[in-house]
Amino acid sequence: MRFVLRACSALFLSISLLAPLSAQAASEEQFIQFSASSYFFSEGAGSVTVAVVRIGGSNGSGNASFTVADDTATNPGDYTATNGSLHWSSGDQSPKFITVNLVDDPDNELDETLTLTLTGVSGQPELGVPITVTLTILDNDGTADGDGDGVADGSDNCPFLSNPGQEDSGDGDGVGDACDNCPATINLGQEDTDGDGFGNACDGDDDGDGVPDDGDGSGNPNDNPCPDGVTTNCDDNCSLVTNPGQIDTDGDGLGNACDGDSDDDGVEDDTDNCDTVDNPGQENSDADTLGDACDNCTAVDNEDQADADSDGSGDVCDSDDDNDGIPDDGDGSGTEGDNPCTGGNTSNCDDNCPTVDNPDQADANGNGIGDACEGDDDGDGVLDGSDNCVLVSNPAQENLDGDASGDACDICPAVSDDQSNSDGDSLGDACDNCPGVSNDGQIDSDGDSDGDVCDSDDDGDGQDDASDPCPLDANNACVTSGNPPAPPSPPTGTGGNGGTGGGTGTQAGSGGCGLLPMAGTGSVLPFASLIGVLGIGAALRRRRG
Question: What is the reported pTM?
């Protein structure tokens, strides 16, 4: 009966794995592991074989024990299998198989699972990854057809990709050509380490790190692993783990990226305090996280391992961090930096730039910080310690007011001040005509040194802006310009004697409308003339009364 398997990528696979995976280790390091972490197969397959592979070498014999455990599938109702062991002789690197017999019942049921686990090894090899595989039994009594190609999922060799013809002509591995990532090479697990769409079985660089699995072209991807740091004309020393540098500290043919003990000192890397330096005793005098074998200050805790001059002695225990001949504590006081070299002195004083090589101890501004480590942030050729505008380029250092800030960055370049700026505009308080209100334009209509935004009488005519008909013109020219302000409401009370219509036009009655000026003949204020007339009328009415 034909059956199919598929790997964790949801592809169906057939019953057996005929070839080992590409090697990921050299002869000195060996692993036993499953070829894939999950499989799917039809209930009607009769039996299924799952491959266990030995990778990384074949010297010495090896054994692996395994267990079979129920999940939703039960033994013997859905399958039959027993716990057991596998054996490899010295020189044997062929895959071994665990067989699971399936029970094809007539029930229309849900898919069911069971688990295989490698529980231990003996001899030369170690357990690799994965050591557990999940097997899913697909019911073949239903009619579900997920891809709509007319073939039930339980029998479809590409259940998620329509292929009604079920072609598998390339390699006959039970994975249809339409979904096989190596259609011409048997690869039941469909492993694709680098996810490039090409299965490992037909991918010349399984991990995609630029170093070919069979870099020497011998036809065997495990016969000439790259030595430490070599990347050409040799086989990838970690073919399933990206490691373009091919670092192999202990020279065992297995790159550090996939070597559990990179320095081969018998201590696994995840607990080794010097994982790339052989130190089986794990000595650690200063009790930091680094063993003495790789600690650049064995007597002083220095996790960062800072070493400014790269002389192998960490800064915390190096008397001359930058190796410029000027000791960090040149005066021998016991405190570094308490007496920095100045004025050209280079002896009996502390290095004024202890982490930057400066044997001349130049310090142009005499601030105790050597020019070599002050820098020039704005690139104007003036060291920051002497630059009056550290972040604004001003090579000439112009400074009109002689304060600490150069004109290029002084918010009051003509007034010596402390650079206070209460309102946050572009001018400092000392030269801002409204220091409490932002006003970059500094408009001051009456020239009284109070900016309009904070001046209650912008035109300086003695009348507050709130009641001034022309707040920006002391002569109230806006009244004669054809845009007079609205007149105030007339007060109540006894009307006064209106002035005569002629004359200067400024005579007013003693009350009522007479409070408004009366225009004479020819006046440009006809409204005022009307008020004068009303004043005369009021006087006549009083006489008649």
Answer: 0.45
